[in-house]
Design a protein that fits this description.
heterodimer, A: 389 residues, alpha/beta, Rossmann fold, 2 domains, six-stranded parallel sheet, two-stranded parallel sheet, 17 helices, 8 strands, globular, B: 346 residues, Dihydrodipicolinate Reductase, domain 2, 9 helices, 32% helix, disordered C terminus
Chain lengths: 389, 346
């Protein structure tokens, strides 16, 4: 019998995988969690949920005792992502684990990804502003190195994950409901998705199929889904009466520029330092209050004209922003429409015999059924509850 | 000035760290004389963090002669044992909610309190919020009209992470999200409207503590029949709050410790809402946490020989309701894919 450890078991993918493996009843399943707060989805099953700190080598060593297979679904801080994986791989090698399955992300190819990232052999180039893709690529390389050192490993690379409990679909739905989603309706905006059960199924296949040579494999629903399909799929729970705003690719690109993080500027920092809010905060401290008072007096001695010129030179004229009459788009969600590439799961199909269990349509219906239940939309009191949104 | 109330904090876990100890240190009515915690290092770190030097002991028996009262903030299934030890020694207890993990255990605590003439208070601190106090007054006065329906919900992904992880054990908690999250509202509901005539529960527990539940309540024997629903989740973010529908409009009650007002939307004017706030001196000084209000009330109750705002009998009523709900529970559907006709392979 296989003894399968699922690291990060309380997360979205981990929980789904544990539920499926337990239902199949063929393996000894060891769900490992980081802390109890997020683990109620699994706790409701009445199973043991050992907590393991991936940053503590001795803890992970002890936890993996007797494990034949390990699946890494863990998330966390940059430290946990890198150092935690290093500890995990070390423990896997120590225990001579037969197979290690690691979850990567399509963000390793960048955001937006290059056109040739239809297939896995495109050059990874993570450039997302949150640095997540870079960390995931670093992880992939660590796993590949461990694989070369003798740990049979499979790297599965999902895009956005859909289905019941999907945080991605909840984000899109929230934006849709808030009027913060604009659809780039040029019929060229693919939405790469994998249903969470399809992904869990791919993990199950990877436990004993394929060559386990550390190769990265896309896992998707293998359908030509567009963002319009996603928006239409969410319609039963979106409760929108007005049409979804349509936005052109060019408009979205210009909004991206407007929302981009400002670059480092000494002048800008100086402006912040002399701003009223900062000075008010500093005045709470008696020493800074005295310094500021002394500076203020020195400025006054220079005369009003000089004082005003100095202030204008540093802080600039007051900025009066234009009133925005249009929708306030959720850029994090909307910009995903510009990714453009449709990742293919041919390699997973060939290597693992992967075939999606659920269609995109079924996945969306499952999400909507889950969402309706979780939000009390079928309780008869939804007319009251929705006033809290 | 009266002598400070000598307090022991039993349990040096999350709620003591974040709420009970700061409340005790902020109060001029109490002196923290003891931390009771079997994991000594945890208690020492806590004392060091706050710069205090209480006695640190592994069990409450070790300090019974030196304290006037104890805050019991330990896993639910340990409340009875610790509370009985205190009460039998004449030490008053403020017990974190719920009073105990079963009705029978709660009953034993209340009986012990009555036998020794000692205060038993239950940590339903939501009752000390300004908006809840205001709502209580206005509901009693019929300010908003006759209540027809109500709905309360709260949902978080993760959140409360007790150090002992006892929240993952049905035995230790006496339930799941209904106990951990929902019991505060159940206590308020019982306080506002009394015990319901009919209840039902659907939850997703399969041997462990439930992560999601929907409870329904019906009041049929009162002068103004009404019904309500309570929805709790540990897997989904749900905006917290209470909505009450009356014959005159909708009352929205924010579910936060800081809220001091209610919002009323009359049926006759859907485009307007009234923010209802108490005039004059607020019932508590600005910045006083609900935990300090609760602790001060407990101390005053002990020193003045009166009942605390939430006493053992009220805590017992909540346990009765929780047990009745769990007795009547039905399973929530959790197999979202089972009726999917578009399954393409297996």
């Amino acid at each position: 019998m296989r003894r399968i450890a699922i690291v990060g078991a309380s997360g979205f993918v981990g929980s789904t995988l544990v539920e499926r493996l337990l239902a199949q009843g063929q393996d000894e399943v060891l769900p490992l969690i980081h802390s109890s707060g997020n683990a109620m989805r699994l706790a409701r099953l009445g199973i043991d949920l050992p907590a393991v700190d991936l940053l503590a080598q001795d803890e992970i060593d002890a936890a993996l005792q007797g494990c034949t297979h390990v699946v890494n679904c863990a998330l966390g801080s940059a430290d946990v992502i890198v150092k935690g994986l290093q500890n995990l791989l070390s423990a896997c090698r120590k225990h001579k684990v037969k197979r290690f399955i690691h979850l990567s992300s399509v963000l390793v190819y960048g955001d937006p990804p290059p056109p040739d990232s239809v297939h896995e052999d495109a050059r990874p180039f993570p450039n997302d502003p949150y640095g997540y893709g870079r960390l995931k690529l670093q992880q992939d390389r660590m796993v590949q190195q461990a694989c070369r050192a003798g740990l049979p490993s499979v790297i599965l690379c999902p895009p956005n994950i859909s289905g019941s409990y999907s945080p991605f679909l909840v984000r899109v739905l929230d934006a849709l409901r808030a009027g913060a989603f604009g659809l780039v309706d040029d019929r060229k905006s693919p939405c790469n998705l994998v249903d969470v059960s399809n992904l869990a199924h791919a993990i199950e296949l990877a436990l004993d199929r394929g060559t386990a040579n550390g190769q990265r494999m896309f896992v998707t629903d293998d359908e030509e889904t567009t963002w319009r399909d996603v928006i239409e799929g969410l319609a039963p729970v979106a409760e929108r009466t007005d049409p979804v705003p349509v936005i052109t690719r060019e408009e979205l690109l210009s909004l991206r520029t407007a929302h981009s993080t400002p670059s480092v500027s000494v002048m800008q920092s100086l402006k912040h330092l002399v701003s009223r809010d900062v000075r008010l905060a500093l005045r709470q401290d008696p020493l800074w209050a005295k310094v500021e008072q002394a500076l203020g007096q020195s400025m006054t001695r220079l005369g009003k004209v000089v004082e005003e010129r100095l202030r204008l030179a540093i802080a600039g004229p007051p900025s009066v922003p234009k009133v925005n009459r249009g929708p306030q788009y959720n850029m994090h969600v909307c910009l995903q429409q510009l990714r453009g590439v449709r990742h293919a799961c041919d390699l997973a199909k060939h290597e693992l015999g992967y075939k999606p269990l659920y269609t995109f349509a079924a996945s969306m219906r499952a999400f909507c059924a889950w969402y309706r239940s979780q939000h009390g939309m079928d309780t008869g009191s939804w007319d009251l509850l929705k006033q809290l949104y | 000035m009266p002598k400070p109330f000598r307090l022991a904090l039993v349990g040096a876990g999350m709620v003591t760290q974040s709420s009970h100890l700061p409340a005790a240190l902020a109060s001029d009515k109490v002196q923290v004389v003891a931390l009771v915690e079997p994991m000594r290092q945890r208690a020492e770190e806590l004392a060091r963090w706050y710069g205090i030097a209480p006695v640190i002991v592994p069990q409450v028996q070790d300090v019974l002669g030196d304290i006037d009262g104890a805050v019991i903030a330990t896993p639910n299934d340990t409340h009875m044992r610790i509370a009985l030890t205190c009460l039998q020694a004449g030490v008053a207890t403020l017990i974190e909610k719920p009073l105990a993990s079963t009705y029978a255990e709660g009953e034993a605590i209340v009986r012990a309190g009555q036998a020794s003439g000692t205060v038993v208070a239950v940590g339903y601190m939501v009752r000390f919020r300004e908006n809840i106090l205001l709502l209580d007054d206005l509901l009693k006065a019929g300010y908003f009209g006759m209540v027809r329906r109500f709905a309360h919900q709260a949902g978080t992904i993760g959140g409360w992470t007790p150090m002992s992880s006892y929240n993952l054990s049905r035995k230790a908690t006496g339930g799941g999200v209904l106990v951990v999250t929902g019991t505060h509202f159940l206590d308020c509901m019982l306080h506002f409207w009394g015990y319901p005539d009919d209840v039902a529960l659907a939850d997703d527990a399969q041997g462990g503590p439930e992560a999601n539940c929907v409870a329904t309540f019906r009041y049929t024997s009162t002068a103004t029949p009404c019904e309500g629903v309570a929805l709790y989740s540990k897997t989904t973010e749900l905006p917290r709050g209470l909505i009450i529908e009356t014959d005159r409009g909708i009352v929205q009650v924010a579910d936060t410790d800081e809220a001091d007002n209610l919002v009323f939307r009359p049926h006759t004017h859907a485009q307007v809402e009234h923010v209802v706030r108490r005039r004059g001196t607020p019932p508590y000084p600005q910045g006083m946490s609900v935990f300090q209000r609760q602790l001060d009330d407990f101390v005053d109750a002990c020193q003045q020989g009166r009942s605390p705002m939430v006493d053992g009998r009220q805590g017992l009523m909540s346990l009765r309701l929780l047990e009745e709900l769990y007795t009547r529970r039905k399973a929530l559907n959790t197999d979202w894919y089972s009726q999917m006709p578009a399954k393409v392979a297996s």
